[in-house]
Every structure is written in structure tokens, then in C-alpha cells.
Amino acid sequence: MSSARKETLEAIRTALVGSEPRTSEHLQELKARIQESVPHLQPQLDGDLLTHFCEKHIAVHGTYERVGRAGVATAVLRHLDSLGIPRELLVGAGPILDQVQWPEQVVVERRSANKDDCVALSEAFAGIAESGTVVLLPGAGRPSSHNFLPEDHIIVVDCARIVRHQEDAWTLVRALPGRAARTIQLITGPSKTGDIEQAIQYGAHGPRRVHLVIVEDRDDA
Amino acid sequence: MSAAGANPTIPFQDRARRALQDQTLQQAMNKAQGGFVDKRREAMAQLPEFDDIRDAARDIKDHVLSNLDSYLELYEQKVQENGGQVHWARTTEEACQIITAICREAGAELVAKGKSMVSEEMGLTGALETAGLKVVETDLGEYIVQLAGETPSHIIAPAVHKTREQITELFHKHHAKLGYSERVTQREAIVNEARNVLREVFITADVGITGANFLVAETGANVIVTNEGNGDLTSCLPRVQIAVAGIERVIPSLDDLSTLLRVLARSATGQEITAYTTMYAGPRHKDDGEGPAEYHVVLLDNGRSAMLGGAYRPMLRCIRCGACMNHCPVYLAIGGHAYGWVYPGPMGSVLTPLLTSFEQAVDLPNACTLNGRCKAVCPVRIPLSDLLLEHRFEQHRRGLTSAVGRLLIRAWAWLARRPRLYHSVMVIPLWLMHRLGRKAGALRWLPLAGGWTGSRDFPVPAGQSFHAQWRATQKRR
Amino acid sequence: MGKSRTGCYSLRHNNQNVSRMTDTKKTSEVPIQVGLFVTCLADLVRPKVAFAAVRLLEQAGCTVTVPRAQTCCGQPALNSGDQASTERIAQGVIRAFADFDYVVAPSGSCTGTLRHKYPELFRQDLKWATQARALADKTFELTRFLVEVMKIEQVKASYAGTCTYHDSCAGLREMNVHEQPRRLLQGVTGLTLTEMVDANVCCGFGGLFSVKYPDISVRMVSDKCANVASSGADTLLGGDLGCLLNIAGRLRREDSPVKVLHVAEVLAGMAEGPGIGEPESDS
Fold first, then answer.
1. DSSP states of B5-47 as a string?
2. pLDDT, tens only, C255-273
3. CA diameter of chain B
4. What is the share, in percent, of chain B residues with pLDDT greater than 90?
5. How is B352-365 classified by DSSP, letter by letter?
6. In 10 A of CB A217, how many CB atoms?
7. What pLDDT is recorded for position C22?
8. What would the mean pLDDT of C224-251 be, rounded to a whole number?
9. Please, which residues have CB within 8 angstroms of residue A2's CB and are 6 or more apart in sequence?
10. Do C8-148 and C154-267 agree at the fold level?
11. Mapping DSSP to helix (H, G, I), strand (E, B) and coil, where does residue C58 land?
12. Distances (CA, A) of C80 to B387, C50, C210
């Protein structure tokens, strides 16, 4: 309904009477403001980013393990065993995960999740130390359903990609080559709800548990 | 005005009285009250920069509002570049028509809904059901409220007015036909049952509708903020995705988003960030493997553009955090339904006359002590209590309040401008009240003041005004 | 002393023992001229509060004048949305208090009206806006004036009792009154100060709200009374008579033994006699 569009914009302009004329220069200025956008005041965050990231993650009921590059598979399996979950994994794509050699008994599938899946394994695009947040960019080989349908979610985080503030994550996103990311998901801990008498209950619709496997810059396990 | 559950026919006073006498409601509100206030206070204490960030958030919103048309155009351009469609709706009826048409064209039968207050404003669920669609709310609080046949009573915690016992009964009644025969009483079991029931909905829904806390012009994305993850399941699984938003939701860049997010969750629930803060920009790419084939955004005006031009513009900064109602002693006493429409608490009292009509909402701006707590906690510094006072000026200009009341005030003011006459007139009533009440110290009844003396004594005046006594002390010198 | 041009009565400066932190704001020899804004509630219901304010201001070294041409700040008209009536009352107040160094009132809501609402009222009228601004800039709530402008550290008073202080909304949020009365109370001999839960939550007065929406108002004041009771205090203090009349009215109806006083009465050593809503001992 383009008349609704026209009328709404006109109504806005009428209400904003006396403001700057709507020339193409004006629009360019606003575009430039977007393109040159920088963070506003950010919370002070000193100290080791990794430590801060882990503390924040724990505070939202998450768990984690820190491993070397060779330790990803064992860490994942260790976590599955601790929960009594069979070694059947939905695995997403990612630079670290693509290199992982899985033992033979482990069932690895690369497909969309369904409601009966127990666990999905994803690789984070980045981590945000400020809030203990994991940034996921669903796309080819990285289905969104992995992040929400299974009961458990394990996310591999490359330590080198843990940034300080949320805006630092946007810098990384903007630097991606090619077509812009369609979907950006910031995930901080497992799913929860306070809707029953204002007390927190985990596992509302998304995963009940989120476990991070944080890969540090060392070659061992 | 259209919204499911609005009760303009029952006067506010009656709704408020019923709410005050509703023991279950009072129990539920009491449980919630401390949490809201304490959690926000703790969050503030942990972020020394909080007040300065609030100022930055306000400035971002003000900048957008004074360029709203341009930012909407830039945002729309980006959505279209991404392969999405933007629809404009002047009224709620138009919005419902647009969304119904999208659903029809998609051959939809089942619609999954994430929490969206603007969709309540539209009365969207009712409109879609009338068109023959099945609509299921997926936010747990909204789902509970839907089962109860009610409307949300809080913009963040829709079922805050419900006790656990009430929820148990609702689930037992409505889930039996789905095969759940046991009554679930424990919180964990209740949430699990809802999880299982709603999973079916996510997976089989044809259309997913969510709101949008923000619309980002930089990327053409709609941002949703949840703790449950229902908004994401609603956005990702169905083949048609629709985001509905008021026109004031657009913001320029991702950096602006971060500032607003920092104050949003802290103000709402005291969290630093919700479990899921996500953004979606357009339909799936060919090799994505998953995701909606169609992506639609519906932008609603419904009186917002009119608010831009006058004293109420700051109200458009609102990011729907709920802090104002969480801190409002009136809201905490009467709950959200007493407000009679979609938005409760201070922000509801400001918006309802503007988005419906002044005539329909005479009580709301007056059922307020102007204590200012709402203004103090607003993350984008909306002067809410000042805007409520502005509503009173507008009501006076339009002659909407009681004529007798206006006359009495005018008469009193006439007298108050004439101090000597005023004090002469006061001599007898003061003396009389003093004589009548000095033994008790307080009067248990006063003419015209039944509202006071019904439940309170009225302390007895001194008998002589200060000015009279002061003049006497001066004369003695 | 005679009548000055504006029809006011002045008192000679009356200095008693007070201790100060540093030099007062005015460094010249001429004492600070304060116009007392009585407030309609103090005027009509409890004059003692205004007398206490005068005593405190004089003890602090001010010359206090009480302009005769005052009745009310206009809040009842303001909060009813009657802009025209409010403007006319405001103009009278602005004229009556034009000549003073400071305007002080024992009330957060009245001073809040003068300071914040008067300039807003006249924003379309440059002449009155300027005058309103001038009045606003020199208007202070009593305890804040004593502590921050007159630099009073301690008053000479005693009160044997446990007091809790109710923060009136306008006082707190419009006039930044919170620590100042507590500071002064802590210096009162024999007085124990205890904080109640939700001291800064509205008592439900809100002017005409208390009679227009009585059910909600009574709920709010009942909550306040419950908090007063659980604080263990025997005395409730506050800086605004509207709140105090409301709370005292409910306390009396509940047969509570808690004594309700305006903070000025305690600070000025005038706390003997009946509290708000209590019967007089003699006729």
C-alpha cells in the first residue's frame, strides 16, 4: 500500500516542521553517520578478557572448559559423558570444528535439528567478554535450529576471537567479506523464564544447558 | 481503537477497586514487586556509567525522532536490498489486513507468535482468528494469558498477575486434550510441559510473527530480545517471517543498538543482557539450508507521527522496558488490567489517551500522585510524570474533567489570589473545625471529603491561621 | 520596625548557638534576607511548622520576612490542569517574593512547584519567564537550605525518641532532599534515627488524588503505615505536611501510638505538645 507509505512519511514530515530540509545531502549525511558509526560510552572493562568472559558465563548458569587446539573432541565427549548423553552429535561448520577428528563410535550428523535431538555442537563467530556472550552467525552449514531445538548446546569458542565490548563484535561482522550476515544471534547462557511467579527456571524453549569449549592458543589438549 | 480485552465500558475506579480487593492478584503483585526494584538497583550499582549511558540512549532516540522519516527510508531500502518486504500501515485495522493477506497468500493455517505489544495494540490475534487461522502465543507468559482468555498485564512479564496455582489449573484444563493428564504443580514441570507443547507449534507453524525492539537501518535487521528463545524459534523455523513494529523503533547503527541494549535489559529485569538478543535481516539465502523463504516487516503509525509534533515527542523514545511500571506504586497496587487497554503503568497512562483518544482515558493521567519515580528510572529519560501533568492540562482545555471540580478549583484560585480576603474567609471554618475536633485531635468526618475520612482521620487545624498568629506576635513587639 | 513597601513585617536578626562548617555564602556584614513561604497547609492546619522554620532560619543568622501577600503556591490548580488559575497565583507569588536573597519553605512540594513548575508555566512569556526563573533559582526547601546554603552542621535541640523519616516525593526527586534532614537529625541530642523500608516510596497523598482515588490512596498509605510500624520508631518525621497529614490520618484511624511531626518542629526544639492529629492537652 504505497499510499500508506506516502501518507505516513508526509505525516512525519509535517510533524517535524521546521527541521532540516529533506534533500539528498541530508540523506547522505545520515548514511555517513551510520557508516562512520563509533561506539558511545562503554562500561569500563579492565583485566584479562578471557577470565572476565568465563566469569560472566558462569554467572548466567553456563559451564565451560578451557582446552588446547588438540583437545576439542575429548572435551566435547567428556561433557556428553558427564551428562549421560549418547555420543550422537549434530555438528555445525567452523574453522576449528571442521578440523576436528572424531573417534569412530561418535555419530556426527550435519543437518537441521529436530525436536528429538539431544545435543548440537556449534562454533562461535566471536565471544564478548563484557557480558559473557557468544556470537553465532547462522548460515550455510550452521543451522539456527542447532542453537534452539536440542536440549543441550555445546559451543566451541576460539579464545582469539573473544573481544572486549559488544561493539567490537560488530567490527568483526562488518569486516566479513561478501554478502552481509543475514542473522546474528547473541547467546548468553541457557534458555530461561521468570514467568512463573518471577522465579527463574531454565530450559524454557531453547537449550537447558550451554557448555563452552574455549580453545586457547596452544597445541596440546 | 482496537485491542482484545480492552474494557472501556467498566469505569476505571471500579476496575481499580476490584483489583485492590482481588487477593490472588495482590499476592502475585507482592511477589513481583521487590524483585523488579531490587534487581534494577543491583544492576545499576554494578555499572557506574549507567546514568551517562542513559543520557547517550536518550540522545540516540532524540536524533532518530528528529530524522524519523529519513531513517525509515534508509531502513526500508536496506530491508529491500536483503530481499525482504516492508509494509506500511496507518491504522491498526490496516496492519491486521496486511498481515492477514500475507498469511492467506502463504496458505497458512497455524501462526506462531512471539511477544509483541504492538500486536496487542493491533488486536492481531483476534483478527487472524476471525480470518480462520490458529494463532498460538509462544512466550510462556503470553501463552498463559492466552489460555486464560486474558490480555497481558505487564509489557515484559505478561502473566505477572497469575499465581502458580492458577497456571497449574490452566495447563490442566487446556492440555488434557493434547494428552497431558497430570496436574503439574512444580515450576520445573510447568515449564517442561509448556516446552513440549509449544515445540509442536514451532515446528508445524506456517507463519512466525514477532515484534521488534529495534529496527537497525545499518543492516535492515529487526532485533528481538528474549530469555526463552521462543522469539527465535518463531523467527527461524516457519517459512514466512513477519516482524511488526511501531514506526518509532528504527535506530541508525549497530553501535547505537549496543548502547540501547545496555540500558534495556538492566532497566527491565536487572540483567546485563538477555539470554537471546538476536537480529534477522531478510529471508534465507539460497545455501542457508534453513530459514524463512519470505521476510516481511509491518510498520505501524496509529498516532505516533502525530506525537512527533508536540510536547509528547519524548514518549516516542520508549524502548518498552517496563521500568516505569515496576516502580509505580499505583501500578503495583492495582496491576495492569485496571488500566483498561494495552499498555499499563505510567507509559500506558501517557500513551493510551494519545493512541486511542483523550475522551476514552480520562482517569489514567489523574490516577497518579505525580511522585516522579517513573521519570527517575526511565532509561531514555522520558519525563513521564510531566507528560501526565500535560495530559491534565489538555483535559482541562477540552473540558473533559468534572465541570463542578473545575469550577471549585477556579473559585478557590480566585480566593487564593486575594490573601486578605482568603484569610478573612478562613477565619470561621478554621475556628469551627478546631472547636469540633480539638478534643480528639482529628476529625473522623468532613463534608465533601468522604474519600479522605472514609479510611483516614483528618488532623484538626490549629484554630487560627499562621498569618493571623504571626500578625499577633508582630503587634506584641 | 515598620511596614516596608511591600507590606511585610521584618524581624530583627536573632542569633543563637549554631555551629557552622565554613563561612556562609554571603561574605558581607549584611545578614541574608530570607522570605518565608509559609505553605497553605502550615498556614491553615499547623502553623507551628512555620514558626519552627522561622526559628531555625533566625538561629542560622538570616533575617526572616513573612510576606503577607501569600496563600498558596497553586499546586491544587496546577495538578488539576488549570493552567490559567495557576499562572495568576504564580504571578502573585513571584511579585511577593521578588526582593529576597532566598525564598525558603518547610516543604519539598511547594518549593518544587516554585522551582520547576513556575518557569515551565511561563515559558511562552519572556517577561514572566525571567522573573519565574529568578524566583526559582533562589528557592530552597528548608533543611537543604540550612545545610547547603547556611552550612549549618548542628542544631541545638533535643528529642528523646526513635524517629524515622519519610522522604516526600517532590522533596526527594524535585528538590534533592534526602541526606540533609537526616544529617541535622543526627545532631539532635537524644534522638535515634532509624530507616524504614521504602522510605522513599509515595505515601499516596498526591494532593487531590487522595480524595479522587481514595481506594488506591488508602492502599498506599496503609503500606506506608505498615512500614512505619515495622521500623520500630515511635515518631514519624517528614518535610511535607501533605504527606504527614495523610499518614497521620491513617495512623490515627489505625489507633497507632506513633507520633507524627514535621522535621522542622524537632530541629527547632518545638516538638513538645501534640503531634499531628493528636488532641491538645489543654483547651
1. T--TTS-HHHHHHHHHH-HHHHHHHHHHHHHHHHHHHHHHHT-
2. 999 999 999 999 999 999 9
3. 97
4. 90
5. HHHHT-TGGGSSTT
6. 9
7. 41
8. 98
9. B88
10. yes
11. helix
12. 14, 26, 13
Q: Taking CB atoms and an 8 Å limit, are B392 and C81 in contact across chains? A: yes
**Cα separation values, C61 from A101, C22, C144, Å:** 86, 14, 15
Cβ contact A150:A90 at 8 Å: yes
Do the Cβ atoms of B87 and A1 come within 8 Å? yes
Q: What are the beta bridge partners of residue A126?
A: A135
Return the H-helix or E-strand segment holding C20: strand C19-20
Tell me the three cell numbers of residue C62: 538570616
Q: Do B413 and C249 touch (CB under 8 A)?
A: no
If one looks up domain C154-267 in CATH, what number appears?
3.40.50.11810
Taking a contact as any Cβ pair under 8 Å apart, which residues of chain A between 51 and 80 contact chain B? 56, 60
Whole-angstrom distance, CA of residue C27 vs CA of residue C145: 17
pLDDT tens digits along B180-204: 999 999 999 999 999 999 999 999 9
Model confidence over B132-181: pLDDT tens digits? 999 999 999 999 999 999 999 998 899 999 999 999 999 999 999 999 99
Query: Residue C77: which of B368, B413, B474 has the nearest Cβ?
Result: B413
State which H helix or E strand residue A215 sits in: strand A209-215
Whether C108 contacts C139, CB under 8 Å: no
> CA–CA separation, C280 vs C276, rounded Å?
10
The domain made up of C8-148 has a fold known as: Rossmann fold (3.40.50)
The pLDDT of B290-309, averaged and rounded, is 97
The pLDDT value recorded for residue B234 is 97
User: Do the beta carbons of residue C258 and residue C227 sit within 8 Å?
Assistant: no
Closest residue of chain A to B157, computed from CA coordinates: A195
> How do residues C179-191 score in pLDDT, each as one tens digit?
999 999 999 999 9
Which 116-135 residues of chain C touch chain B by CB within 8 A?
Answer: none
Q: Which residue is listed with cell 477565619?
A: B427
Question: Domain A49-215: which topology?
Answer: Rossmann fold (3.40.50)
Residue B113's nearest CA partner among B79, B84, B141, B154 is B141
Architecture of the domain spanning B49-305: 3-Layer(aba) Sandwich (3.40)
Residues in B closer than 8 angstroms to A203, CB to CB, are 191-192, 195
Distance from chain centroid for Cα C77: 20
HSE-CB of A23 using CA atoms within 13 angstroms: 5
Give residue-wise pLDDT tens across range A182-197.
999 999 999 999 888 8
CB pairs under 8 A between A and B: 261
Taking the Cβ of residue C248 and every Cβ of chain B, the question of whether any pair is shorter than 8 Å is answered with yes
**Is residue B12's pLDDT more than 50?**
yes
Confidence of residue C24 (pLDDT cuts 50, 70, 90): very low
B-chain residues near C48 (CB < 8 A): 462
C28 band by pLDDT with thresholds 50, 70 and 90: low
User: Measured between CB atoms, does C110 come within 8 Å of chain B?
Assistant: no
B451–C212: do the CB atoms touch at under 8 Å?
yes
Domain boundaries, chain B: 49-305, 419-476
CB atoms within 10 A of CB B153: 27
Chain B nearest-CA residue for C281: B439
- Say how far apart CA C281 and CA C273 lie, in whole Å: 7
**B474 contacts in chain C (CB < 8 Å):** 9
Q: Is C182 on the interface with B (CB under 8 A)?
A: no
Contact C212/B at CB under 8 A:
yes
Is the Cβ pair B451, C253 closer than 8 Å? no
Indicate the domain borders of chain A: 49-215
Short-list B246, B320, B307, CA closest to B90? B246
Chains A vs C: touching, with 3+ CB pairs under 8 Å? Answer: no
Instruction: Judge contact between B163 and B23, C-beta under 8 A.
Output: no
Touching check for C48 and chain B: CB below 8 Å?
Answer: yes
